[in-house]
Amino acid sequence: xxxxxxxxxxxxxxxxxxxxxxxxxxxxxxxxxxxxxxxxxxxxxxxxxxxxxxxxxxxxxxxxxxxxxxxxxxxxxxxxxxxxxxxxxxxxxxxxxxxxxxxxxxxxxxxxxxxxxxxxxxxxxxxxxxxxxxxxxxxxxxxxxxxxxxxxxxxxxxxxxxxxxxxxxxxxxxxxxxxxxxxxxxxxxxxxxxxxxxxxxxxxxxxxxxxxxxxxxxxxxxxxxxxxxxxxxxxxxxxxxxxxxxxxx
Length: 249
Fold this sequence. Notes:
By secondary structure, the protein is an alpha+beta fold. It folds into two domains: 61-126, Roll (SH3 type barrels); 139-248, Pdz3 Domain (Roll), CATH 2.30.42. The protein contains six helices and 17 strands. The protein has helices at residues 2-26, 42-50, 151-158, 161-165, 192-195, 215-226; strands at residues 61-65, 67-68, 71-77, 83-88, 91-96, 100-101, 104-109, 113-117, 121-126, 139-143, 146-149, 168-175, 178-187, 203-207, 210-211, 230-237, 240-248. Strands 10, 11, 12, 13, 14, 15, 16 and 17 form an eight-stranded mixed sheet that branches. A five-stranded mixed sheet has the order 1-9-8-7-6, with no helix packed on it. Strand 8 and strand 9 form a beta hairpin. The longest helix has 25 residues, at 2-26. The radius of gyration is 40 Å and the shape is globular. 16% of the residues are buried.
């Protein structure tokens, strides 16, 4: 009985001592000014230890250039399936939307420019316009809208679409969603087609008397010309129809 009383007394005393110690540790005296307590910048402290950095946002840069890794834009054709032609030296490529060139993807094709993109760059590549004359282009004779062309010269240019596309930009002309012909958007002065009558703004309406009702008609007519010694082209210019006749000799 005495041992039980003594044990209880010791336990009770020990509990009082523990309570007193804890109270001393966690009790904040009323005289302490909390404004004097130093604060720690947790973000700086952690980042200095484990190298935390703020996320960097990558912004695209937009440039306008004449050359893209030595490739230059020579022609564009705007239609439901637009495409562009680029050249580098003797090499040439036909590009459509989503095609790639030197790591850049074709995003947009417009009349005289093409948008190339990567994750970090947007680059507009422009057709570089420069007035120049082409060698080995000879006009034999000219009457009123009538031309005589040397067969060798005709074959050299008309049978080489790549050469033609370097000097002219043609696109379908639409009005109220109706095909009106093929419009000459731009043409290089002194080039083969320029010397033989075509001008910027002309709308090719007929070839060999046949009206062009679609892009396919235009392509078919062009192919027929290649095997002809005589052909004609009718264009709408200044709201008037002009017909040009050609004799290949």
